[in-house]
């Protein structure tokens, strides 16, 4: 029916390629270095198999923390260069300093330099090949969107932001009320759909139409024909969730129950017990760190903030129950003299010392006390103030669903979304929060913890 489409790797396939080939190429390079030179610090042998395992563990861990597996960043070589240098430097350092499981330090210290350069250059060469051969725009996944009850431009922007290799070529407009004057996308007629699939090497059609009234018969017939030919036709809601890791709650209507099959982990007693046990351990550790830092923060607060070091605010917790959250002060005294308002990026009310604490997430340390009390968990939706909850629950559908689990010190929205306190930002955060509630699991929790470490180490807190 159509010409053979250009090569395209799905999101999951690209992530697997990066994770596997990073390790394989590094091990192959170290093996060749050992065979063809006098390099002897690291060898891949049966007797010292644990050297290899340790290197793989460190390489994977720090590559994740320093975002080498972030597909957006993996497509930009300048970012890859910086993240690779961070990853390999910390990997080699930890590998050398690990007792028993790593080789003894060589007498010739240049051996360590060769070890570092081999890992670094290998990853950079492979990642350059990835950008040119796999992440190149010529291998984009070309898509047509069919829709009538949504904003095509917003859909387009959301998809491109989440996955630059997901290219929406055009759309079939089934509703004359949609304003498409500002979009550069091609508008196709229903009768031309098959020709468009062939001409533009379309690999997928995304349907965001018909939730209320059903598809028009001619469009239904065209899509049925393509489907019977084995052509992929997918639901917009599912595609949006897959590529953005968010649930498009703003498009959910009377059939909302189809999109909220909450994770079984929310009722799994073993999971919840393990999570609570971990919360207690991490809160004790966090409070101990806080005790060590408090004298220094107190001094910085006297000089930079000139107000009480601690402050409390009422927030909404699980099942809508209010509680007092504890934080280190980061704003000027009487920051809300004119009434409650959202915090903003580069908020003028934040003091210079407060900006430092926010970037390092130090201001959140007192909340470990809320974790210890059981009012919060390490991972979950960030708790909001009652006045904002009341406002947002009236303007955003299903907003209160985020209160079915405990609020968290960090969460999926914090590690994935942009910082914004306005309603549009609140909607995006809710989309991430609902995704977490729907897919909550030990693996996703670990994912969030590693991304939070990346945020803290790179001082990207807001």
From TrEMBL:
Query: For this UniProt entry, what's an example GO CC term?
Result: membrane
Q: To which protein family does this belong?
A: Belongs to the bacterial sugar transferase family.
Q: Which GO terms describe its molecular function?
A: phosphotransferase activity, for other substituted phosphate groups
Name under which the protein is recorded = Sugar transferase
The answer to whether the entry has keyword Coiled coil is no
Q: Which residues form the Bacterial sugar transferase domain?
A: 276-457
The protein's UniProt keywords, in alphabetical order, are: Membrane, Transferase, Transmembrane, Transmembrane helix
Membrane topology label: Multi-pass membrane protein
Q: Where are the transmembrane segments?
A: 16-36, 48-67, 79-100, 112-133, 277-299
Where in the cell does this protein reside? Membrane
Provide the species name.
Answer: Zunongwangia atlantica 22II14-10F7
Do you know which Gene3D superfamilies this protein is assigned to?
Answer: NAD(P)-binding Rossmann-like Domain
């Amino acid at each position: 029916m159509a010409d053979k489409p250009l090569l395209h790797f799905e999101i999951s396939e690209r992530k697997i390629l990066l994770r596997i080939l990073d390790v394989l190429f590094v091990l192959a390079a170290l093996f060749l270095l050992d065979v063809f030179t006098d390099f002897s610090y690291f060898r891949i042998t049966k007797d010292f198999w644990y050297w290899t395992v340790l290197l793989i563990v460190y390489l994977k861990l720090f590559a994740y923390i320093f975002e080498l597996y972030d597909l957006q960043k993996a497509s930009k070589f300048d970012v890859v260069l910086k993240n690779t240098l961070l990853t390999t430097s910390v990997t080699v350092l930890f590998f050398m300093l690990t007792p028993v499981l790593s080789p003894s330090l060589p007498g010739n210290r240049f051996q360590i330099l060769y070890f570092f350069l081999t890992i670094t250059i290998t990853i950079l060469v492979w990642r350059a090949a990835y950008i040119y051969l796999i992440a190149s725009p010529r291998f984009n996944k070309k898509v047509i969107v069919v829709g009538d009850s949504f904003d095509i431009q917003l859909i387009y922007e959301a998809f491109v932001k989440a996955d630059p290799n997901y290219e929406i070529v055009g759309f079939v407009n089934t509703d004359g009320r949609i304003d498409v004057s500002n979009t550069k996308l091609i508008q196709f007629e229903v009768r031309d759909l098959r020709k468009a699939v062939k001409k533009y090497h379309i690999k997928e059609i995304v349907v965001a139409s018909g939730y209320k009234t059903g598809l028009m018969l001619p469009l239904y017939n065209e899509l049925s024909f393509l489907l019977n030919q084995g052509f992929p036709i997918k639901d917009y809601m599912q595609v949006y969730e897959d590529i953005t890791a968010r649930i498009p709650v703003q498009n959910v209507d009377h059939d909302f129950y189809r999109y909220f099959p909450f994770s079984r982990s929310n009722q799994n007693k073993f999971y919840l017990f393990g999570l609570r046990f971990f919360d207690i351990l991490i809160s004790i550790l966090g409070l101990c760190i806080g005790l060590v830092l408090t004298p220094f923060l107190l001094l910085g607060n006297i000089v930079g903030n000139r107000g009480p070091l601690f402050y409390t605010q009422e927030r909404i917790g699980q099942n809508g129950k209010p509680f007092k959250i504890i934080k280190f002060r980061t704003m000027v005294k009487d920051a809300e003299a004119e009434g409650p308002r959202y915090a903003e990026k580069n908020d003028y009310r934040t003091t210079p010392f407060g900006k430092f604490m926010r970037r390092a997430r130090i201001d959140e340390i007192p909340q470990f006390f809320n974790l210890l009390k059981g009012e919060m968990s390490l991972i979950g939706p960030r708790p909001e103030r009652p006045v904002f909850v009341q406002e947002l629950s009236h303007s955003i559908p299903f907003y209160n669903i985020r209160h079915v689990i405990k609020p968290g010190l960090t969460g999926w929205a914090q590690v994935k979304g942009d910082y914004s306190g306005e309603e549009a930002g609140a909607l995006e955060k809710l989309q991430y929060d609902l995704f977490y509630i729907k897919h909550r699991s030990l693996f996703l929790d670990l994912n969030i913890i590693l991304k939070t470490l990346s945020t803290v180490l790179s001082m990207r807190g807001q």
